[in-house]
Amino acid sequence: MAMTKTRRIAGLFASLALLAAVNNAVAGETIRIAVIEMLSGPFAATGISLTNHLQMAIDDVNQAGTLPDGLKIEVVRFDDKGSAQEALLALKRATDMDIRYVFHALGTHIAHALLDAINKHNLRDPQRPILYLNYSALDPALTNEKCSFWHFRFVPHADMQLEALVRLLTTRKDLHKAYLINQDYAYGQGVSKVLREMLAQRMPNLQIVGDDLIPLGKVKDFAPYVAKIRASEADVVLTSTWGSDLSLLVRAAEESGLPAVFFTLHATTTGTPTAIGAAGTNRLWTVTAWHANAGGRLESYDLEYRRRYGEEWNYVPPKAAVEMWARAIQTAGSTDPTRVARALEGMRHDAGSGSLWMRPDDHQLMLPMYVAVWTRAGGPGVKHDVENTGYGFKTEMRLEAVDTTLPTTCRMQRPE
């Protein structure tokens, strides 16, 4: 009897301590977040740029006093060096620092490792859960068969982006032979598979004459791949490669005078527009959540980002992630990750590009997308150039969130 009473008192004190910790976090001076990113290695330029995108959104939230009781966000950066193992070591360091929120962008292989580790941590220590906010890892599995209550994705996944790309591709009756080239990891492999399925259904007359998977960040000379594309007589190259791999591929195609057009998913990534240059004029299309010539109130946001960081702002997901997370803290009246996650579910928001919706079924954000063509700046629809190239992107097609919303196979288990 006495033992039972003692246990109840101990449990009460534990509950009160947890409640006090949550309330103190809201009333305290800072909430720390871990940003785990590729800050060195072949994709460092992309990782640093995305981290700058995130930092500007955080600075704006801090300056606006959006969070309750004067709470400020403090960023703790970790370099995963493009390695899943390094990312897990970073996660361990963040956990040891009692950081409860992880923001991450590049690398589906890293996303899978982080998600598995965070799920295991939250099962072991349900009183101190970690929430994972993903704004660039694109493997559809992360919000399908591997969906988790503790993971939210703020970027359209690969299949959603391919839906946008193929919609424009189907309008091109002049294309007859396609060459697929993607990076050899879960994301690139998935894109290759889904592209084949989509094209077989919607463009059965478009012949696939090549399908290469390249080592991620390892190829320095793409001339042999371009030679294969030329030999195949492909008139369109379909690629989801990103970062320096895409820049080097485009540069090799330019140097060889390859006549094929390019349909891509990541041509707005830092450094890639410079690699495209004049050779891509009216020959390269990309999918993006926004671009400088899409206009609207994000145009002034882009100009302010250029002033602060000396590069173009071209990526909505980090801004959406920070703003929606901050709103969820407001709504929950707490920094407790479980309560914040529940506030994020079903949230509607406008980060400047149109209506966004966080689907509660799988924690996948639905948002508008553009398919844009690379062309000379100064003409109709191309007010701004990119990276001082004299060229920029022009909208060919805008799709609302509903246009690329795909079904999910998620069967989410929620905490009680």
Overall pLDDT level: 92
- Low-pLDDT stretches are 1-27
- Our Rg estimate from Cα atoms comes to 22 Å
> What is the assigned CATH homologous superfamily of the largest domain?
Response regulator
Strand content: 15-25%
Overall helicity: 40-55%
| Helix and strand run | HEHEHEHEEHEHEHEHEHEHHHEEEEE
Q: How would you characterize the largest beta sheet?
A: 7 strands, mixed
Which strand order spans the largest sheet, edge to edge or round the barrel? Answer: 7-6-8-9-10-14-15
**Distance separating the two termini:** 29 Å
What is the approximate shape? globular
CATH fold type of the largest domain? Rossmann fold
Q: Based on the structure given, which CATH architecture of the largest domain is correct?
A: 3-Layer(aba) Sandwich
What do these coordinates show?
With 416 residues, the chain is of the alpha/beta class. It has two domains: 2-156 and 298-366, Response regulator (Rossmann fold, 3-Layer(aba) Sandwich); 159-288 and 368-404, Response regulator (Rossmann fold, 3-Layer(aba) Sandwich), CATH 3.40.50.2300. 41% of the residues lie in helices and 20% in strands. It is built from twelve helices and 15 strands. It has helices at residues 2-27, 44-64, 84-96, 108-124, 158-169, 186-202, 223-232, 244-256, 272-276, 298-309, 316-332, 337-344, and strands spanning 30-37, 72-79, 101-104, 131-134, 151-153, 177-183, 207-214, 236-239, 261-264, 284-288, 348-350, 355-359, 364-366, 369-376, 391-399. The strands form three sheets. It has a seven-stranded mixed beta sheet, with helices on both faces. Strand 9 (261-264), helix 9 and strand 10 form a beta-alpha-beta unit. Helix 3 (84-96) runs parallel beside helix 4 (108-124) and helix 11 packs across helix 12 (337-344). The two termini are 29 Å apart.
